[in-house]
């Protein structure tokens, strides 16, 4: 009997030594801390979800309590960082009180401008979707749907404004007297018809020497391959004058869409970037230049991702053929504005 007890004691001591060794290894590799962190995050999420549960006879939503959960959601959904930052900012700014009924949603939107309402609409809709996914309760879904019904709809309509050549020339002249990086960005959007976000990305790539535009007959072509939802911008077409402007920029001259937009917004005499894109398309497809609409769409990055390889090559050849017409038009417009490209002597 004594021998059995002694054997059990030795076995227990051996198990203790093994467990102690395992604990030491786990602590050395940081496994325990990682487990604690993961458990802590899950507890935070569960804690936020408890705020969604029934309070009395209804539900209550709290943005501060679910903020961390929503940040995980937008990271998982791979939202554009700029859009994600905007949504978080709007929810932080406007959703400060608990939401218990549709009337609370109406109060949040009361007094907002059309632009603010548009941004908060997107942010709140995404937040409610996040909460719905994380709490698949039929009654809770009905509650969320009642809140969604209280979110004001965006003002429906089309902005038909297309600036005149004189207005664009005046804007070019105004921008020529300002900061170089914003002028380069402005003229690139005018040259290419690209969206501002794509133009900024290209400028920064050229500054970092990641993009190497190809010089053709009086204009430049830079491969892009920028995906945007269902569209794809294959190339950027722009004039050699604009490339000279971009080449003058240094690493600390990088530009973002937000900075460029704010810079132009503070200058009432300057046409907004979005109208340059409309102007470019209108001029390209006008009777004067007569560039086919499909080619203009290709130049401006409006081509579907599903485009076939054969059709893609046809559009590329036609874009190379037709773009010089628009490049010449823009060059004449710059002359009309009385601006010139000044190249720094290094």
Explain this structure.
With 346 residues, the protein is of the alpha+beta class. The protein folds into three domains: 2-26; 51-150; 165-337, Intergrase catalytic core (hpI Integrase, Chain A). The protein is 63% helix and 8% strand. The strands form two sheets. A four-stranded antiparallel β-sheet has the order 3-4-5-6. A two-stranded antiparallel ribbon has the order 1-2. A hairpin with a 3-residue loop joins strand 3 (214-215) and strand 4. Helix 9 (180-192) packs parallel to helix 13 (273-284). The longest helix has 29 residues, at 309-337. The termini are far apart.
Might you state the CATH topology name of the largest domain? hpI Integrase, Chain A
Strand pairing plus helix content: what structural class?
Answer: alpha+beta
Strand content: 5-15%
Determine the mean pLDDT: 83
- Rg from C-alpha positions? 29 Å
Q: Determine the fraction of residues in helical runs and give it as a percent range.
A: 55-70%
N-to-C SSE series?
HHEEHHHHHHHHEEEHHHHEH
Major sheet description: 4 strands, antiparallel
Low-confidence stretches: 41-51
Give the N-to-C terminal Cα separation: 96 Å
Q: Quick one: overall form?
A: extended
**Domain module tally:** 3
